[in-house]
Design a protein that fits this description.
The chain has 342 residues and is mainly alpha-helical. It is 73% helix and 0% strand. The termini are far apart.
Length: 342
């Protein structure tokens, strides 16, 4: 008996060592991509978007407004804000604190920092589940190898910042439902508000994930929900999301006012003619084969290297002995698809 326990312990320790080694190698690979592009100009894919973000960070670093930040590309009065400029603030601060670091380098460094920072909330989420630590190490390593994530994590863009706060929100929701407290409520609200204001389209999928966690927690505690006090954590979670939506509305209203002062910027406000169809698309687009090619082939290929991995994982999930695994798998597929349609 003791010999079997020792053998099991040794196998477990060996597997953990392999997983940690794999994760460290993948993180080193990710950092290598930053090093290789350290002195390169931000003129690779979507150069117009990277340089637009960079020029705003440049003028913030030069003493410009931190809210009505300048993007001098469409004429006076120069300010046409879109996302909340937290990423630009940090980039400007890095250049101020380290004069030897160029603006391009600071932008790449901050972007990579947020991407690697995503491992912290992901770890927090994983620790709530059985074999979660092992699952975290494997999944985190695979994310560090994703062509899509690795490329954009060293770009001068806001994407990894939005991703960090979005995952942080899910982790905060999971912790808060497990142990409600004032700090957890503040953390959840802050993460949700930052994610929504930086990039609502990124936050959208993660807000749905948070909603599913709430539904699941209510299902588990269904016997206790007959008492009004038991509903308080779920009501506070909903309040947190409502505050983030109100914060986003305030930012959009403020940015629309600034855009309206610019002749071209007037056509870029949230209520401008044509912007609704641009933001949300049409019913015909949702049923088009072009969209399904993106969902089924292009996006999986860019994210994991090949679209063939998804069918293989589907077959594996369907043959799992537990229905719980199948439910979780298809809920995750749903979370992947729904933002495309919204």
């Amino acid at each position: 008996m003791i010999r079997r326990m020792a053998s099991h312990f040794n196998r477990s320790q060996s597997r953990e060592t392999i997983e940690w080694t794999f994760l460290v190698i993948c993180m080193a690979f990710c950092a290598t991509q930053l090093i290789l592009s350290w002195d390169k100009p931000i003129l690779d894919q979507y150069a117009f978007r990277q340089t637009q973000t960079a020029i705003s960070a440049y003028w913030i670093a030069k003493g410009g407004s931190w809210l009505a930040y300048a993007t001098p590309t469409l004429g006076a009065p120069w300010s046409i804000p879109f996302e909340f400029p937290f990423y630009q603030w940090l980039t400007a601060s890095v250049t101020s604190l380290s004069p030897s670091t160029t603006l391009d380098q600071a932008g790449r460094l901050v972007s990579m920092g947020f991407f690697l920072g995503c491992l912290w909330p992901a770890w927090r989420i994983a620790t709530h589940y059985r074999n979660g630590r092992s699952t975290f190490r494997v999944c985190a390593a695979l994310i560090m190898l994703s062509p899509l994530y690795v490329f954009w994590s060293r770009a001068f863009m806001i994407e990894s910042a939005a991703l960090f706060f979005s995952i942080w929100f899910v982790a905060a929701v999971r912790d808060f439902l497990n142990r409600p407290n004032v700090f957890g409520l503040a953390e959840m609200t802050f993460a949700a508000s930052m994610a929504a204001c930086i990039k609502i389209t990124t936050f959208l999928g993660f807000s749905l994930a948070g909603a599913l966690l709430v539904v699941y927690a209510m299902y588990v505690a269904r016997e206790q929900l007959r008492y009004p006090k038991a509903l308080m954590p779920y009501a506070l979670t909903a309040l947190s999301v409502c505050i983030s939506i109100a914060t986003l509305w305030g930012w959009v209203h403020y940015s629309d006012q600034l855009k309206s002062l610019n002749l071209i910027g007037q056509s870029l406000t949230s209520h401008a003619v044509g912007m609704e169809s641009w933001n949300y698309g049409t019913l015909a687009q949702r049923g088009s084969m072009d969209l399904w090619r993106v969902i089924l082939i292009r996006a999986p290929s860019e994210a994991v290297g090949s679209w063939m991995i998804a069918p293989l994982v589907t077959v594996y999930a369907l043959f799992r002995p537990s229905w719980r695994h199948i439910y979780v798998y298809f809920l995750l597929i749903l979370l992947y698809i729904v933002p495309f349609f919204i």
